[in-house]
Design a protein that fits this description.
CATH architecture of the largest domain: Alpha-Beta Barrel
Number of strands: 17
Order of helices and strands: HEHEHEHEHEHEHEHHEHEHEEHEEEEHEE
Helix content: 25-40%
Radius of gyration: 22 Å
Largest sheet: 9 strands, mixed
Strand content: 15-25%
Oligomer: single chain
Shape: globular
CATH class of the largest domain: Alpha Beta
CATH topology of the largest domain: TIM Barrel
Bound molecules: pyridoxal-5'-phosphate
Distance between the termini: 9 Å
Number of helices: 13
C-alpha cells in the first residue's frame, strides 16, 4: 500500500506563512538553511560536466530528500533520480520525477508492495542480490499488475550488499530475467569505499579496480546472453572517473548538490549550500558554545563558516568552538555551521529554510523521513 501523503506538508505550509520574508538572523535556531543560488550553481555545474561524459546523471536524492531540489536536477538534465528507500521514491514521484532507481535491496513486505504499486505509474527500478528476494519482487509485481525493473547489485569492494562474484551476478540475473513481473535492466555497483580514500591518485586506482569488478559481472551476464542496458555506479568523489568509463551508462552522484566538508575534500568546484544556523549561547574565554549539537548537525563534526575557529566538541545539544582571542563573537550572535556530512544533517530537520541574499524565500520539506512517511 502506498503511504498516505503525510501531515508534514500541512505543517510546513503553516510554518511557511510565518518564516517567508524573514531575514536569516530573525530565524529561530537551530535552523537548516539552503542557499538556493549555490545549490542551483552546483546543479548546473554538474550537469555541464556530465554532459561531456559518456553517461547520464541520476543523482542520489537521499542526500537532500527534497522534491524541489530533485526537480531542479531533472530540469538541468538528470535522467531521473536515485533513492535509498521506496518512501523517498514515492515522495519524488509525487513531486513530479518520472524515473526512479531505488539503489538498495527492497525486502520488507510493506515497501515491496509500495514499490510494485509505484511501478504502475512510474519507471521504477530496485537492486537485487538474492534469488528469494527476486521471487518476492516478482510476486508483488504480478499481484499489483505492474512490472518492476531490477538491476543486479554488484559489490565492487565496499563489502555492503551486492553479489560477490561474476558467477553469482550471472545466476541472480538469470533468475530475474526468467521471473514474470520483473524486467532485468542491468547492474549497479556503487564504489562507496573509494570515497573514503583521501589521496586523489589512489582514488583513481581504487575506482578503476571497482569498475573492473562491476564490468566483470556485465561480461559474465553477456556470456549467458543477458545484455545490460543500464550500468550504474558513481558518487560525488568518483563521478569524473566512473563517469568517464564508456561502459558505464549512468552515475548516481548526489552530494555535489548541497555539499559538506567531507565531499569538499574529495572534489573541487562545488560549494556548500546547506548550513545549520545556530546561536552563540555562551562564551567563556576563547571557547564559544552553540545551540546546535548532534541533533541538529548530524553524524560528523561541523565547521564554523566564515570564522577562523576550531571545533572542540559536538555534544547532543551543543557544539563547542575555540575562536581566536580577538574574535568578536559573543552571546546572542548568529553563526552558520557547514555540516560534516549533509545527508545525516538534513534528515534531522522538517524543512529547509530556502535563503536568497540573506532572506527566507520559501520553506521546502525534507521528505520521507522515517516515521512520517513510513508509519503503518
Ligand atoms: C548507492 C549509492 N549511490 C550513490 C551515492 C552517492 O554518493 P555521494 O553522496 O558521494 O554523491 C551513495 C551515497 O552514499 C550511495 O549509497
Amino acid at each position: 500500500m502506498m503511504p498516505p501523503a503525510s501531515d508534514q506538508s500541512a505543517l510546513v505550509e503553516a510554518a511557511r506563512a510565518v518564516v517567508v520574508g524573514r531575514a536569516r538572523d530573525e530565524l529561530t535556531t537551530p535552523a537548516l538553511l539552503l542557499d538556493v543560488g549555490i545549490a542551483r550553481s552546483n546543479v548546473e555545474r554538474m550537469a555541464a560536466r556530465v554532459a561531456e561524459l559518456p553517461v547520464g546523471l541520476r543523482p542520489h536524492v537521499k542526500v537532500h530528500k527534497s522534491a524541489h531540489l530533485a526537480r531542479m536536477q531533472v530540469e538541468a538534465g538528470a535522467i531521473g533520480v536515485t533513492t535509498a528507500t521506496v518512501w523517498e521514491a514515492i515522495a519524488m514521484a509525487r513531486g513530479g520525477v518520472d524515473s526512479l532507481l531505488v539503489a538498495n535491496e527492497v525486502v520488507d513486505p510493506g515497501p515491496v508492495r509500495a514499490l510494485a504499486e509505484l511501478a504502475g505509474t512510474h519507471e521504477v527500478m530496485a537492486l537485487v542480490d538474492d534469488t528469494v528476494n527476486v521471487a518476492d519482487l516478482g510476486a508483488a509485481a504480478r499481484a499489483a499488475g505492474t512490472g518492476i525493473g531490477v538491476l543486479v547489485d554488484v559489490d565492487t569492494g565496499m563489502g555492503r550488499c551486492g553479489v560477490r562474484s561474476p558467477a553469482q551476478a550471472r545466476h541472480v540475473a538469470e533468475v530475474a530475467a526468467a521471473t514474470e513481473g520483473l524486467v532485468l535492466r542491468g547492474v549497479s555497483g556503487y564504489e562507496g569505499h573509494c570515497m573514503l580514500e583521501p589521496d586523489a591518485e589512489r582514488r583513481v586506482l581504487e575506482a578503476g579496480a571497482a569498475m573492473e569488478r562491476l564490468l566483470a559481472a556485465v561480461d559474465a551476464m553477456a556470456d549467458a546472453g543477458i545484455a545490460c542496458e543500464i550500468v550504474s555506479a558513481g558518487g560525488t568523489g568518483t563521478y569524473h572517473l566512473t563517469g568517464a568509463n564508456p561502459r558505464l551508462t549512468e552515475i548516481q552522484a548526489g552530494s555535489y548538490c548541497v555539499m559538506d566538508t567531507f565531499h569538499e575534500r574529495l572534489v573541487p568546484g562545488f560549494d556548500i549550500a546547506l548550513t545549520v544556523l545556530s546561536t552563540v549561547i555562551s562564551r567563556q574565554g576563547d571557547t564559544i558554545v552553540l545551540d546546535a549539537g548532534q541533533k541538529a548537525v548530524g553524524t560528523q563534526a561541523p565547521r564554523l563558516a566564515g570564522h577562523d575557529a576550531e571545533v572542540l566538541f559536538v555534544n547532543e545539544e551543543h557544539t563547542g568552538v575555540r575562536v581566536p582571542a580577538a574574535s568578536r563573537l559573543r552571546v546572542g550572535d548568529r553563526v552558520e555551521l557547514h555540516t560534516g556530512y549533509a545527508p545525516t544533517a538534513a534528515n534531522l530537520h522538517d524543512a529547509y529554510h530556502v535563503v536568497e541574499q540573506g532572506v527566507v524565500i520559501d520553506l521546502w520539506p525534507v521528505e520521507a523521513r522515517y516515521g512520517v512517511a513510513t508509519l503503518g
